C-alpha cells in the first residue's frame, strides 16, 4: 500500500476530465524519461509525479531513490501494479487517443501505411513519407477541429483548457513533424504508441523500492525535511495550475530540495522568446512544447518555471 496525506484543494483533485473523476486517466506515460535520466546526477533522491509510473520506475531502475507522489489514489495504485509486473491497462487518455486513431483511419491512415512509416530509420525518409502519405489536408482539418478549445471543453476542465496555447492543432502537427525529423521511428517506442496504441513496456527493475505517496505535491514537499531531494520530476504539473499554486510549489521545492536540485518539467505551452535550455525536441514522446531543466534556484518570479509564465 501507499502513504496517504490529506490533499488540498488543487486543480487536479477532481481530475483533468469532466467525467469519471475516479477512473484511471493515464495507462501510459507520454514523456521520455531519457530527459530525466540525462539531467539527474547518479544516486539522487528524486521526487517524481507518479502518473502511470513509468518515469519513476525508469529513475529507480537507474539507481535513484524515488518518491512517487500523485493526488490520485487510482493512478498511484496502478503505478504500483505495474511495478509488481501487471500488464499496462487502458486509461481515459488512451480511449481518447483511440477515438482519434479511428478518425485518422477515415482520413486515409491505413494500417499498411502506418506499418511502413514505423519501420523507417531515416529521418529524411520519415519526413518525406509523412508529408506525402499522412499529413493530408483532411487529417489537418480533423486535428485542428478536435483540438480547438470549444471541443476540448466538452471533455476537459476549464483550467487545463485555458492553459492550452492558441492554435493547438497546428502546434501538435508541427511537433509531430519535428519528431519525425529528429528521431528514428524504428528505434523508439513512442511513435508506435501514438500511431497504433501499442503500449510501451516499463523499463528495468528498480534497484531500490519506490516510495508511493498519495498527496498534493506542494503540500507533501512543504512537510518534508529540508534538503530531502536532489531532483524534482514534475511531468506537466503546471498545465492548468494558477500562479498562486506555482508560488506554493516553488517555495515547497526550495524548502525540500538542496540548493542545486534539478527541476524537470513539461508543458503543452510554447516557450517564450529567449528561453534557454528547452529540450522539447529531444523528448521522443513528441507532444510537448516545453521540456525544461533548471536548478530549483532558477525558478522565475511568481514561482513559475522560466518560459512558462
Major β-sheet strand ordering: 1-4-3-2-5-6-7
Number of domains: 2
- Listing every helix as H and every strand as E from the N terminus to the C terminus, the arrangement reads EHEHEHHHHHHHHHEHEHEE
Helix percent band: 25-40%
Which descriptor suits the 3D outline? globular
- Could you name the CATH class of the largest domain? Alpha Beta
Rg, nearest Å: 19 Å
Number of strands: 7
**Architecture of the largest domain, CATH level 2?**
3-Layer(aba) Sandwich
The overall pLDDT average reads 88
Strand fraction equals 5-15%
Tell me the structural class: alpha/beta
Quote the CATH topology of the largest domain. Answer: Rossmann fold
Please outline the helices and strands:
Elements: E1 3-4, H1 34-39, E2 45-49, H2 54-61, E3 65-70, H3 73-83, H4 92-106, H5 111-118, H6 123-134, H7 137-146, H8 149-155, H9 158-163, H10 168-180, H11 190-196, E4 211-214, H12 217-222, E5 229-233, H13 243-256, E6 257-267, E7 290-295
Parallel strand pairs: 1-4, 2-3, 2-5, 3-4, 5-6
Antiparallel strand pairs: 6-7
Helix pairs in contact: 7-10
Q: Which short descriptors sum up this protein?
A:
309 residues; alpha/beta; Rossmann fold; 2 domains; 13 helices; 40% helix
Amino acid at each position: 500500500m501507499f502513504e496517504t496525506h490529506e490533499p488540498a484543494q488543487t486543480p487536479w483533485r477532481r481530475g483533468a476530465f469532466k467525467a469519471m473523476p475516479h477512473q484511471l486517466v493515464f495507462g501510459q506515460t507520454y514523456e521520455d524519461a531519457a530527459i530525466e535520466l540525462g539531467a539527474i546526477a547518479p544516486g539522487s533522491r528524486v521526487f517524481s509525479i507518479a502518473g502511470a509510473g513509468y518515469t519513476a520506475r525508469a529513475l529507480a531502475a537507474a539507481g535513484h531513490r524515488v518518491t512517487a507522489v500523485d493526488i490520485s489514489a487510482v493512478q498511484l495504485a496502478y503505478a504500483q501494479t505495474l511495478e509488481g509486473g501487471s500488464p499496462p491497462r487502458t486509461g481515459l487518455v488512451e480511449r481518447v487517443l483511440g477515438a482519434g486513431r479511428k478518425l485518422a483511419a477515415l482520413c486515409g491512415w491505413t494500417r499498411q501505411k502506418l506499418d511502413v512509416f514505423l519501420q523507417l530509420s531515416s529521418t529524411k525518409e520519415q519526413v518525406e513519407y509523412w508529408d506525402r502519405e499522412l499529413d493530408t489536408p483532411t487529417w489537418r482539418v480533423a486535428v485542428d477541429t478536435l483540438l480547438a478549445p470549444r471541443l476540448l471543453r466538452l471533455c476537459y476542465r476549464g483550467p487545463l483548457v485555458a492553459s492550452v496555447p492558441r492554435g493547438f492543432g497546428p502546434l501538435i502537427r508541427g511537433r509531430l513533424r519535428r519528431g519525425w525529423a529528429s528521431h528514428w521511428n524504428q528505434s523508439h517506442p513512442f511513435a508506435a504508441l501514438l500511431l497504433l496504441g501499442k503500449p510501451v513496456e516499463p523499463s528495468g527493475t528498480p534497484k531500490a523500492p519506490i516510495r508511493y505517496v498519495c498527496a498534493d505535491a506542494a503540500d507533501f514537499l512543504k512537510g518534508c525535511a529540508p534538503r530531502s531531494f536532489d531532483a524534482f520530476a514534475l511531468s506537466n504539473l503546471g498545465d492548468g495550475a494558477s500562479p498562486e499554486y506555482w508560488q506554493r510549489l516553488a517555495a515547497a521545492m526550495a524548502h525540500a530540495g538542496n540548493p542545486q536540485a534539478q527541476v524537470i518539467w513539461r508543458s503543452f505551452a510554447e516557450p517564450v522568446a529567449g528561453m534557454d535550455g528547452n529540450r522539447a525536441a529531444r523528448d521522443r514522446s513528441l507532444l510537448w512544447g516545453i521540456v525544461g531543466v533548471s536548478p530549483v534556484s532558477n525558478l522565475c518570479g511568481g514561482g513559475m518555471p522560466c518560459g512558462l509564465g
